[in-house]
Design goal:
This protein has 86 residues and is an alpha+beta fold. It contains 1 helix and 3 strands; from the N terminus they run αβββ. It has one domain. A 3-stranded antiparallel β-sheet has the order 1-2-3, with no helix packed on it.
Length: 86
């Protein structure tokens, strides 16, 4: 289902196209998730294993500590280094 859109769940092709257009670290092939206690803000954490990562373009680059990225799964990020994991 596409966030903010009410209606029947999108097809797999529509979800894939949406995820690629968002270029969010949450659906990137190179994300290694890091488990932390849930926050009210729903922020998530992970490490990027992409050798060509463009961390300088990360919207939350000021919150990166010891290589751990902070991101929100529902935010458009537009990361130029994004590779869809499918």
């Amino acid at each position: 289902m596409i966030p903010g859109v009410k209606g029947p769940p999108a097809s797999r092709e529509e979800r894939d196209a949406f995820n690629e257009s968002e270029a969010n670290c949450n659906t990137c092939k190179f994300l290694e998730r890091i488990q932390r206690p849930k926050e009210p803000s729903r922020m998530q954490y992970g490490r990027c294993t992409n050798p060509g990562a463009r961390i300088d373009r990360h919207p939350y680059r000021d919150r990166i500590e010891e290589g751990v990225l902070t991101f929100h799964a529902d935010d458009w990020m537009g990361m130029p280094c994004y590779v869809y994991r499918r």
